[in-house]
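BACKBONE GEOMETRY TOKENS
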Amino acid sequence: MVRRSHPVVFIHGLWLHASSWQEWLGLFRAAGYEPVAPTWPGEHSTVAETRANPDDQANVDIDAATEHFARIIQDFSEPPIIIGHSVGGMIAEKLIGQGMGSAGVAIDPAQIKGVLPMPLRQLRATLPVMINPANASRAVSLTPDQFRFAFGNRLSRAESDELFEKWSIPSPARPLFQTALVNFQLHSQAEVNTANNDRPPLLLIAGRDDNTEPEVIVDSTLKQYRDSAAITEVRKFAGRGHSLTVDSGWRQVATETLVWLHGKGLGPRVVRRTSGTSR
């Protein structure tokens, strides 16, 4: 058994390495938590190794990733807080819907069953991968230009390129196809138990200028929880894109997350918001 005080499990999404959470890990550790950021199935421990072995992640789907993180979570001596970004945010929702964890935070979460909007900019962000159906069984990399539109659209070119070089990795494309087709399948792996009344509290976070998971996706996701008596709240950050967990404004989002957790009785220390907080 892993024995930790106030454990936190961070789950990244596609095209970012697990180590991209390093700043969050340091902040949460300083605030009294014991955080970890596990890799996905087939992902290597470093960005360089993962780039050198892309096929090791090929064909990993949502269920395989969810089961992988569920096993990690079950190894803790107490239910951890589960924080995910993008597809990792959707996986956090799935795990929380299954009654796992002590709280969940889904940052720019990927589309779940019942979420119908599909804005044009979201289609443009995913088109480079989705245009070739054969990519569903591959691990696919983004180019710097594709990364900038999907992640760094609110950043300078220099900052977007820096993040690309530092954190971008090839990722399994199958979860992207699964979320895109979620409402056309009777039994989808992107389905979440949103009606669970007994699940832990959940915070949804939206970057208002996100191209990959636009604000309307998060708004529609919130509506899917209307039949649950469990706590579901939302925070939105103006002028932020999909890179909001790794760009120069990451601390604002991380601090607001800490404030929310503390308000739910899950914070070992009082945390003060940074300036320019969410609205």
About this structure: The mean pLDDT is 93.
